[in-house]
Specification:
Number of domains: 2
Strand order of the largest sheet: 3-4-5-2-1-8-9-13-14
CATH superfamily of the largest domain: Glycogen Phosphorylase B
Strand content: 15-25%
Oligomer: single chain
CATH class of the largest domain: Alpha Beta
CATH topology of the largest domain: Rossmann fold
CATH architecture of the largest domain: 3-Layer(aba) Sandwich
Radius of gyration: 23 Å
């Protein structure tokens, strides 16, 4: 079976975000099962300037109409680190920029045109690839118009849309619909129109053959008014086409027993290397190594949905105690500023780095004792899977996939390995932090919980098998399914 995945993010981009990791690991997992999987994404400036990434020109160029203008799409080809074929769509007018969706917390004004171009150029590539593709798998809002264009032009592809984050919908003013060059009948209640605006995600939901999302709990959440962000009604009407597959971890990349980016390897049976990593992390971030309170850490986007509105008010309370805190990630300028101010106030206890660094991300996972996940939304909870494998016990707010990954520690039954809070508030999250601090004081108990967490398995094998079944259902048992 031949599959083309379309996404605004993917390897070789370097950034904190689940979508990049998924677009690296899922195609690789399917490839090991015998499928021909390729990924198409824009040729961003970051990729252009990455000299380590080898790419070549395919010689394919296509004129793509966006409204009344013609833009040229040029296609490059490369391979991800895991060997997956990548197609990169080059149009410097749209993608030769410092950011992906915007800069300094502000979205680019022409994002509608940019990602309509991505969807159209991806479809044009799909039409030209041989042997013929069978599945076009679009990820999130930026690629969600792919199923719409496939339907509108009667193309012979089956389509899948995966919703990683329903709050980001690609909603633009109604006049931007003209940029799609679709017939007016598509800009209706039963099309891409939503509250008078062009809505990419709604269009994808209506016109794709199958809809998936990244955890069962998140599937349930997005069918409710509180979790659907306005599209819950549309999703409920199409719930018969909606399924959930929990994301997984690529343990060839994220495994302390084999991680070449950390100073010492370790595993559940031999934890000594974690102490080496802890000391290396504190030294790298220029934080005090003694007295020996817990090291907290986060590798995340610094935005409201990741819970910074309830975490920032706790920073002073947390950092006056014997703790260390390291945060890596960028996002909302207001939260970035708040973190920078706190880092200056507590220079020996708190370090904040804005620019993503792959090596530092792995060192934080390996060196921290406790991870903080105060998220308002955590559809898949991929970061929690990494935390558990590295023995960083999570303090997390219950939402989305978190409920399928973290089991709350219960001393009465001696079960669980994390510290959950069920209310989205600073005080509730602080109570969970205090529980973790209390247990951390019992080093023997803490080591037992670490070992319990590290034995959890969230590999992509089961997830890839579910996608395999979904694809097979779409293509049908007609003899053309070959893996």
């Amino acid at each position: 079976m031949r599959i083309l995945m379309i996404s605004a993010e993917g390897p070789p981009l370097q950034r904190a975000g689940a979508l990049v990791d998924v677009m690296d690991a899922l195609p690789s997992a399917l490839r090991t099962r015998g499928y021909e999987v390729s990924v198409v994404l824009p040729f961003y400036r970051e990729i252009k300037e990455n000299r380590a990434f080898k790419k070549k020109n395919t010689g394919i160029t296509v004129d793509v109409q966006i409204g009344d203008k013609i833009h040229v799409a040029r296609y490059l080809e490369g391979r991800s680190a895991s060997g997956v074929q990548l197609f990169l769509i080059r149009c410097d007018e749209f993608f030769d920029r410092a950011g992906i969706y915007g800069e300094r917390g502000k979205a680019y004004e022409d994002n509608a045109a940019r990602f309509i171009f991505l969807c159209k150029a991806a479809v044009e590539l799909a039409r030209r690839l041989t042997p013929q593709l069978q599945i076009l798998h679009a990820h999130d809002w930026a690629a969600a118009l792919v199923p719409v264009f496939v339907y509108a032009h009667g193309l012979p592809f089956k389509t899948v849309l995966t919703i990683h984050h329903v709050a980001d919908q690609g909603s633009f003013w109604g006049l931007d619909f003209a940029l799609t060059n679709l017939p007016e009948r598509f800009f209706t209640l039963n099309g891409v129109e939503f509250c008078g605006r062009l809505n990419f995600l709604k269009g994808g939901i209506l016109y794709t053959d199958k809809i998936t999302t990244v955890s069962e709990h998140y599937r349930r959440e997005i069918l409710t008014p509180a979790g659907g962000h306005g599209l819950d009604g549309v999703l409920r009407e199409n719930a018969h086409r909606l399924s959930a597959t929990l994301d997984g971890v690529d343990y060839t990349r994220w495994n302390p027993a084999s991680d070449h980016l950390i100073p010492a390897r370790y595993e559940a049976r031999r934890l000594r290397g974690k102490q080496v990593c802890r000391e290396a992390l504190l030294k790298e971030m220029k934080l005090e190594s003694a007295p020996r309170g817990p090291v907290f850490g986060m590798v995340t986007r610094v935005v409201q949905e990741k819970g910074f509105e309830i975490l920032v008010p706790l920073l002073d309370r947390l950092l006056w105690d014997d703790v260390r805190l390291i945060i890596l990630g960028e996002g909302d300028p207001a939260y970035e500023t708040a973190l920078a101010v706190a880092a200056r106030k507590f220079p020996t206890r708190f370090a904040y780095q804005k620019k993503y660094d792959e090596k530092l991300a792995h060192l934080i996972e390996a060196g921290m004792d406790i991870s903080l996940i105060p998220s308002r939304f955590e559809p898949a909870g991929l970061i929690a899977m990494y935390n558990l494998k590295y023995g960083a016990l999570p303090v997390a707010r219950v939402t989305g996939g978190i409920q399928e990954i973290i089991e709350d520690y219960d001393p009465t039954t001696d079960s669980g390995y994390g510290f959950l809070c069920y209310e989205y508030s600073s005080e509730a999250f602080w109570d969970a932090i205090k529980r973790a601090r209390s247990v951390f004081g019992d080093r023997r108990l803490w080591a037992k919980l670490m070992k319990r967490a590290m034995t959890c398995n969230f590999s992509w094998d089961a997830s890839a098998e579910r996608y395999e079944a979904l694809y097979a259902e779409l293509v049908g048992a007609t003899g053309e399914v070959t893996a």
